[in-house]
Amino acid sequence: MGRVKAGRVNRPGSNLAERLWRVRKNHTSIDAQISDHDAGVEIRYFYDGEPVLSQQWPTRQLALTDAAARLRDLQRAGWTTHW
After folding, report:
1. Cα–Cα distance between 8 and 20 in angstroms, integer?
2. How far apart are CA 19 and CA 2, in angstroms?
3. Rounded distance, CA 57 to CA 40, Å?
4. Which domain holds residue 64?
5. Does residue 83 belong to any structural domain of this protein?
């Protein structure tokens, strides 16, 4: 994984990603990161640091709405937010 500074991750060959949230449960974590691209916005989800899902959205607002819904679902399942 790239260098992390103030909630941002710099990956070689990619745009700067900003962490939206992190949840933890039973010593496991899930992260959501957002990055802007020419064609829209991408959200990437990581399970214990490993990429598991990536989605493209035409606008930042649509991406943030979906990420917030996923966070609520995880919290209902017993995951707690952690930075």
Report:
1. 9
2. 13
3. 6
4. 3-78
5. no
Is residue 66 in a domain?
yes
DSSP string, 7-24: TEEE-TTS--EEEEEEEE
CA 81 – CA 31 distance, rounded (Å): 10
Non-local (6+) Cβ contacts of 69 within 8 A are none
Mean pLDDT by 10 residues, the chain (83 residues): 42 70 97 93 97 96 97 98 84
3-class DSSP state of 1:
coil
The total domain count for the chain is: 1
Q: Evaluate whether residue 25 is within a structural domain.
A: yes
Q: What is the pLDDT of residue 13?
A: 42
- Does the model's pTM come out above 0.85? no
Note whether residue 10 is domain-resident. Answer: yes
Could you give phi then psi for residue 68, rounded to 5 degrees?
-65, -40
Q: HSE, CB side, 13 Å, CA atoms: give it for residue 67.
A: 29
